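Repro case for the chain-ordering regression, as requested:
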Amino acid sequence: MACRQQITPALRRLARSGTSELSRKSARSCAQSIARAGASNGSRCFSSSQQRRLQQTTPRHGQAKDEFTSTKYPEIKRDDRFSRLTPDHVAYFRDLLGDNGSALIDGVNGAADDDLAPFNSDWMRKYRGHCQLVLKPSTTEEFSKILRYCNEHMLAVVPQGGNTGLVGGSVPVFDEIVLSMSRMSRILDFDEVSGTLVAEAGVILEVADQFLASKGYIFPLDLGAKGSCQLGGNLATNAGGLRLLRYGSLHGTVLGIEAVLPDGTVVDDLSRLRKNNTGYDLKQLFIGAEGTLGVITKVSIQCPQRPAAQNVAFFGLESYEQCQKAFREAKGQLSEILSAFELMDEGSQALVHRVTGNKRPLESTYPFYCLIETSGSNVDHDSEKLQNFLESVMEQGVVADGTLAQDETQLRSLWSWREGITEALGHLGGVYKYDVSIPLPQMYQLVEDTRARVAEAGLLGDSESDPVRAVVGYGHMGDSNLHLNVATRAFDERVEKVLEPFVYEWIAERQGSISAEHGLGLAKKKFIGYSRSPIMVGLMKQIKGLYDPKGIMNPYKYI
Amino acid sequence: MACRQQITPALRRLARSGTSELSRKSARSCAQSIARAGASNGSRCFSSSQQRRLQQTTPRHGQAKDEFTSTKYPEIKRDDRFSRLTPDHVAYFRDLLGDNGSALIDGVNGAADDDLAPFNSDWMRKYRGHCQLVLKPSTTEEFSKILRYCNEHMLAVVPQGGNTGLVGGSVPVFDEIVLSMSRMSRILDFDEVSGTLVAEAGVILEVADQFLASKGYIFPLDLGAKGSCQLGGNLATNAGGLRLLRYGSLHGTVLGIEAVLPDGTVVDDLSRLRKNNTGYDLKQLFIGAEGTLGVITKVSIQCPQRPAAQNVAFFGLESYEQCQKAFREAKGQLSEILSAFELMDEGSQALVHRVTGNKRPLESTYPFYCLIETSGSNVDHDSEKLQNFLESVMEQGVVADGTLAQDETQLRSLWSWREGITEALGHLGGVYKYDVSIPLPQMYQLVEDTRARVAEAGLLGDSESDPVRAVVGYGHMGDSNLHLNVATRAFDERVEKVLEPFVYEWIAERQGSISAEHGLGLAKKKFIGYSRSPIMVGLMKQIKGLYDPKGIMNPYKYI
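-- result from build under test --
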């Protein structure tokens, strides 16, 4: 974990004493030594992410443990147009994929439910399907043949990558066949001049990033689930993650994809060129479609050079207004080296502390914390920029306290206070999770308004009989992306009624998005209308109808 | 124009004397003073672009002056399904838009051909249509009503922005109605915290950038035609330009659009959020569709902060291999501040010199030149990085000679040697222009192979009887984007036969793109198959059929 720095007393003193010439000098001298010390190791490690596994954790979001999705959502009925799996169907797939045991999990002919379970549930065990057959093709051709067969025989399918999603998008609802990407895990090509990586969709994000690290490059996406999530799933959900602020969205970095449509057509759009203006950019439709149009089988992506220097600072702040000020200062002063600006409220940090028992980065508690990361090519320059920034926010009294990672271990530790929130929340009971985007000035107000509403309804408290333990907020401030989390002790229908549609209406009134980066999946199926007009939803249905007229691709989800 | 720097003799000496300790020291000392001098003004000016107007220049690309496109391409026939304009049609539009003279140019009822001419021709006067009616709506609602009427009455239309395209995409072929965006020119909103700009599609790029400059921001796209081209056209053609290397493509920076479909439907996807994962990202289809799906009426785009410091260096190099080495070094050492890496061959620079008569930036001539631009937030840091880079390429003998802009005038002047090529070529006769993307190691080989082929055919020479004056290459090396230009003295059928399909086949064999950033328009209509498979073309036609089933949107073009 991060050690305390000498900076803290100075920071605190400055915050109190204002911006006299003396205090400015102290700040400069203090910040100088710290910025240099912190950056001098030129650390190249960028995440404290832990592998997100299928854990036997308490179920979430107001649902009895391992309840079937079909039970929880009785209004969703199995589509009778879909065939039920027969031994004949399975025989076709077995014949196609071979019978070596690794390519197929066959519940129709007796595979144990335990073998199927990981594919039927999401990692939070909020959603559970009735799938009886998992297929693991290892070539595009196999995907093509399988999909064509399923389309002809009206067999519904769910593509499944690392299964780390948060909205139930990658698990079956009824008896859909799971198409696992796990055997499509080869890195195919890397161009060391252009930084273009070509890989199969089942490559785990962290594996791709480690491969790139060995070449001096970095994957332009990073997120907490990197140890399990896969590139294809990242694209299918248009994952945003921690460094979108710096490297932009996948719509900009992905150069090409290969995908298979339900009728078996292979969309061969695996361009490796940074510029290619030859007609409609169809690959963009698959980025963020959540597997409802086809299966992404290969990816070509532009990767930036791995920064030589990295710094991470962690601040305590007295108000959300100060967080906004700090962000504006960081944008202005750190500019091209700013790679992350994360926000955490005290509630979220208290939960992490409670679960992990780790010593907190700062001695006192504050209503808000910000984690700032810089990534650049020159250690000294980055340290100087950070030092100037530190001075500035200290002198202005914007931050109340702060610490700076001195080595890679501390850097990981500081990141763990941000990245560990999801995991910590998961340990404490059910969680209502909202991943939203709201214009920055109003962003945190949603947490306060929600907390007040839950409290007014008498549902929030410290007693074991209070259904809601805490209403917390954190997220990617650099992208106006808030994660509102309502941590509950146990399922209580009243909580959901207080939260929904309140949260969605609140967001819609401010032209926000009800899903900034997690997608819609099953969880937000009902709520798309809060962020998209009927015209836009109609246009989406047109596209769905065009590519998947029989509706076999990931049915029952948002479209 | 740029002044000569003291660096040059030192550079030349170093290039000859190798990398002794002495020469390294000289290089450091010399580069130091120059890098500091060049960067000390912290210039904020980013382009020497000149307004691209409809000029009375010599016609291009093997075509008699002002020849009708329908004459030049006799194989393209007017689609008889389209109605011919009648006074009744015009009366409807006049009633809708008002009769104040600014909203309508009516050749049906007698407007002079001269008034229609600028809308019937592209700026190079390579393409010329027979349009008799120009409409200039000023609201989305007017666009919607016009398109609905046109769709119902089978009237074909061409959306037209700044009309600065290079492939004939924005001018009519037959009697299509021109929908001019010129009255959709309002900047609607700007958020100074997030940097999100919302503007109508007819705003001129330079106007948007100047507005942003006053707010401390920069438009994430810049190109030679910025004085005339419009945001809507930039999006419709997915313009790449000079700083894609730094700010990425419009697929990543555009947050939302409003567009009108042929049936009058308003695609209201004008999100201002950096993250919004609520279904298919349909706006992406309109980016790069060249007006064949609908008319983009409004744009929302993420703008980066305007860099405080900028440097431009101009080098002479002895070979294309050295250019590649310089690029790799620049990527590694200048990293996050590298904002442009442009390549020009001697042929292109000789033409600019001949047309402008300006003193050349370097004393001697070299086979290749590179223009390197850095943009960052800290003048001193950027200068130091550039200085280190200079030392490195000097010590290694990668560059043979160089100069560095010392002030804004010099910076503009150096850029003019890159940005002025198109203009200069235009003054000398017809030009066959190819805007292509090829993997970097092979990129310039296309110019050499083309030159050899033209020479072998006896078409290249200095005599007035030789049809081809020069085969030159230049472009955005940072994006593997080459502009191959074949400058001719006069139309000669043999030239085209020697060039096509040779050039396209050459590119296809290397998995390149036949249009990196200019689009396909009419010019590359026939050649899409060299960069896209029949499956991809088929999928594009599906999309075209979905949005524009009657085919009224920009017909006769690539789809």
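Ordering looks correct now. Chain B touches chain A through 86 residues (CB under 8 Å).
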